[in-house]
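Contributing new records

If you add data, match the layout below exactly. Sequence lines come first and carry their own label; structure lines follow with theirs. Keep one chain per record. Anything else will be rejected by the validation script.
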Amino acid sequence: MGLRDSLHTPNGTTSRDLEQDSPDVERAQRIQRSAARPSRKCPDAVNGRSVSCYLVSFCTTLYLAGIQTEMSVLTGVPQAIPSQVDAGKPLQSLQTPSVMSSGVTTTEVQVSVQTTEAPATESNSETTLAPSEIGYMLPRSGTCPKSAQQVTTLEECIKAAEYLKKKMMSRTPFHAHTDPPGCIYRKDDRDIFFNSRETTDKDTAKADRKPVCKGAVNSFGVSPTNLKPVAAWDQAPDDVREEAAKIRLFCFAWTPFRPGDEAVLAEVTKQYSKCDGHAFFSDRYPQGEEREDVIVVKVPEQRVPRSDGLWLYHRNMVGLMPTWEHMLRKKLLEDYDWVINSELDHFLSPSRARLTIVSYLRTLRKGMSNEQNSIHGPLMLMWGNAFVFNKRMISMMREQWKFLGVTESGKSIGVGCPQFMRGRQEWPEHCSQDIVYPSLVAGIMRGGVNAYGRPGCGQADATTRNNIRFQLGCWEMQHNPYGMSEEGELEAITEFAHVQKMKDADDAVKRYSETDQADNHKLWYSAKNVPVIHHIVSAEVHRVARELLDPEP
């Protein structure tokens, strides 16, 4: 069997059902050959023969013009955007997408910008795009948005794959009758192929197929391949940065080091290293390898086996109680102004955290008199299920730990949970930190502790008593309009990078108007400056978030 016979289509059929040469290309070549032939003049004499000749010539000209117009539409319209391949120029240098063992290409942030240059021509189509601003995108639905159009040539499809950092299934066209025509992205396989089949009335829409679209760079959904990171720190006023720079921050997390936790540990460590001090606590080392920043603590035996995926499900305080015991007894927190307890499925930006702490303090200074006075006492900030404790609260916890540190023991259901939760919410089945921490300031700790924010991620309605709104502390990926797949979360992170450049909420309204995200402009804008993003699904999402949202100075 030859190479041609061994090729397979995207839907699994062999190349016996394919035509490797596009019918559109053959038709174009016939037109060009016809145009190249010498013209035959009609007789000058006025008679029946000459009239017939002129009539046939006129009709033929109209027919060829119609075919040429049809070809322009089929090949993506704009003569103002000539293909570099057609012009005999090499494809512009782009980084080769790196491929993981699964065959999935990873997302690169810094690559070459793709632009084309062409002589100025008068546009003959409303969809013609400015040649220096062309970018590529994968739409959310099965059609391109109003601001874009589908890629309809093989050469440009190859460019689009390089631009989007997706694997090109083949650099030759397929002719698959059961797939949509043009440049197509296969969602399940995360690759792109070009189908030269002409459009027919037959419905070939598939749930895992999307058109690859082109549009103006920075229009909705179309990002430049070298989307420039903008650090929230660089945008903050000088006086805010000066106040934030004085904050000494300690970051810690309790983790059972399940496979998913170990997979993201390297990326999370890069972020935690930007704190003034950090530590990970667990009942074992990751992959059995001892690390200086991992502290092993003893966790009481549970009814659910340690090997079970539901071990300590909604019972994080069983691991956090011995964690606090260690930190307070060893006085690990003495040199820090604020302490953050987050999780490994959080993307945490320490620089944004410092800025957000300052934002909360400044908001409180504009609040009622008791709120203004509270900044001088013990404070806890609630950023979803990430919690931030000031130095005075840590000191108060140490003084009261003899009472606060008592946990349920023996064979009881609540073993390992703090006893001060007896009779309160979730007891005895669960003891989640986003329930227990707020309970500390709701009458358990003596002396009075004030807490501000919301213990649920994604809640942007926290205000002072005189209705001054606090900045959002945690953006919830469960609310992501693009979904919680790795691909959906990467799209969201890219939107966060666009949002970070916005001056105000009106910019968000403009960006998302007349798109399927018009109703979500407030949701997207709330991501500006947010220090914590919850439910990050992979190390790749952590990496892209770090590079786009918290770049190195």
